[in-house]
Design goal:
elongated; 143 residues; mainly alpha; 4 helices
Length: 143
Amino acid sequence: MPDKVLIADLRLVHGSYNIIMMLLFLYQGSLGLRIRRERKRGNKPPLNTIKRHRSIGPVLAPLGVLGFFAGVTLSLLDDGVLLNNTLHFIVGLLLACSIITTFFISRQIRGPESPSRDLHFRLGVFILCLYPLQVFLGLGIFF
């Protein structure tokens, strides 16, 4: 069983990491919204925004899921109980599954009228709603 001080430090690292991930996902979402807004207006979206959105997404997706698995590992190392913070775990699992699903849906987007595009958008908004909730629930564990 690892030292309790080490566990406390790892909890801070886990929380800080996921706050940073939330901010990065919010940035990624803002890029996606800019692209979508221009498409809906009938304009050609800015090419550099599209390139940035497409290059950042595949990096953020596994990093976001990594935050979930780090939390699971930390929970198991701490007291061996996975569902000690049940709501935080469930929201984290839902977040990780949504990130994975959104990533694979993004691979199916072909052309401006692709039906996968709207689903990608909806799941992206769902992720952006879940992240602050997850951070709030995580901060609640400390207090």
